[in-house]
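call fold(seq) -> tokens
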Amino acid sequence: MTCTSNVDERMVPAYTLCAGTPHGQGEGVDLVVARRFKAARRHLRPNSTRRPHGVGVNAVKPSPRLAPRTDPEGPAPGSATICNMDYGLALPNFLEGSSAEGIEAAAEAAERLGFSTVWTTDHVLIDHAFEAEYGRIYEAILTLAHVGARTSRLKLGTSVIVVPQRQAVVLAKELATLDNLTRGRLIAGVGAGWSVAEYAHLGVADRFHVRGAYLDETIRLWRHLWSGSVEPFDGRFNHLTDFVFAPLPAQTGGPPIVVGGSSDAALRRAGMLGDGYHFSVAPPTAVAERVPRVRAAAESAGRPMPPVSGRVTLRFDAPPPAAGQPYAMTGAPEVVAAEVRAYAGAGVDHLALVLRETDPARYVAIAERFAKEVMPLVG
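ret:
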């Protein structure tokens, strides 16, 4: 059975990341939601209590610093785009030693230094084989709620939620609530996951084998609910007829949905359904190979190429990873800056730095060093 919704997937909102004032000065970096689908408003019921876009305290206002992208390989001229490279920090909500103090220190440093976004990592109940990495982990959405209450400018992203492990409507409510309470600062990074054991631990073992289909339908369902529509939604996994969904997200149409993954299915999903593509720990050469595939999927669906973001490990003054080890940006600041430029050349708009440090003081010191010694070299 195919799901039906009255939201045109070709007209979903796109978001963009754009540098504002120099990092560490003034207001820093804004992530701005650029709206391409005014027609989607007509799907709202006349008696909706939702504020029109651009009106009221929750409105997301376009930045005057946005510049149109003119290169033929990117979005159509007139759509918003990145100004140089934009940066975020992966919060230390995972790894042994993670703590509330470390998460809070990281968020404070990100806002002070001008990073645009902080991101959380998601797992719930992993098996012992991955204990060192994800055995101790703060829940991704609740962590962002805590950080959102302590900050005022930072965008709040999930990198990424394993959506099929969760109930789609409950997750839609959690994300809409978080976006509403933080005045439109949420970025919903989503993925299908990889751990059969974790799916089983959460009581949805059978869903692992249809996780891609579940994720595709969930994205459509979220947009249906977040649009304010009360029309029925009939899908393979969700059947809604008589329902009320409120409050709506602060961002018109809901927070941007960025799609993670490296498989062919994930790249197609990013291009055809996503507001962005979000990679994980992949070198610039790998990203450069994926971007044309995302673009081709977007074009096949009549959509522009979405922005590209991703998480990348940073280890100053360390040797390059050995063969077979996960990629990381390593070495002196000028070497790291060269890698950042390589990502930009591959089509990346935003890098979320994974510092792999949980001690608050050491985490902040690394973030400060990057802002002071690497950002100026990239331009």
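The chain is about 30% helix and 15% strand.
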